[in-house]
Amino acid sequence: MLKIGQVAPDFTLINTEMELKNLSDWSDSNLVIAFYPGAFTGTCKKEMCTLRDDLAKLEGLNTQIIGISVNDPFSQKAFRDENMINFPLLCDYNREVIRGFDVMHQNFAGLKDYTAAKRSIFIIDTNKIIQYIWITNDPSKEPNYYEINKKIESLLTQNG
Questions:
Q1: What φ, ψ does residue 59 adopt, rounded to 5°?
Q2: φ, ψ (nearest 5 deg) of residue 96
Q3: Which of 6, 104, 111, 156 has its Cα between 20 and 30 A from that of 127?
């Protein structure tokens, strides 16, 4: 299990444009990594749209949002386009990253052997150190967006 203060696991995933993206691609930004169970589900749509609406504020705080689910890049692209998501959505269809971040939701929605991502938020600073972790076993629960914004603001205060 990952803990605050640890270095975030590196990863390489495909985005909606079929390009490989690495954690290090965002080396000069703080990151909000939002793992979500699945595109086109109600709570996931609400969460991604709320993060989308907060993006302008976060970019002003040297922060990039990244969404990660186990969906394929084609579904992710349709989800992104339909909801006008303006941040990268990455595809962990092999489930390697959700395993590395320990956010595997096994038998998701009662589907035997189907593993999705647990809804979770990791805030990672520019040194790739985990500064915040929020994980829920309840896929209908959204994160505390106010708490996320406050944590990002505090990182900027710490880093001058």
A1: -60, -35
A2: -75, -40
A3: 104
Residue 43: both structure tokens together: 């709570």
- pLDDT tens track for 3-43: 999 999 999 999 999 999 999 999 889 999 999 999 988 89
Output the furthest CA–CA distance in the chain (Å, rounded).
49
| Both structure tokens of 158 | 């710490």
Structure tokens at 116: 């999705």
Residue 6 lies in a domain: no
Q: What is the pTM of this model?
A: 0.93
Q: φ and ψ at 80, to 5 degrees?
A: -60, -50
Distance CA 127, CA 5 (A): 11
The reply to whether 7 falls in a domain is no
Distance CA 81, CA 150 (A): 29
Structural domain tally of the chain? 1
Domain housing 21 = 12-158
Alpha-carbon distance of 107 to 124, in angstroms, equals: 28
Helix (H, G, I), strand (E, B) or coil at 103: coil
Specify the DSSP class assigned to residue 71.
Answer: S
Are the C-beta atoms of 66 and 74 separated by less than 8 Å?
no
Report the CATH number that the domain containing residue 73 is assigned in CATH.
Answer: 3.40.30.10
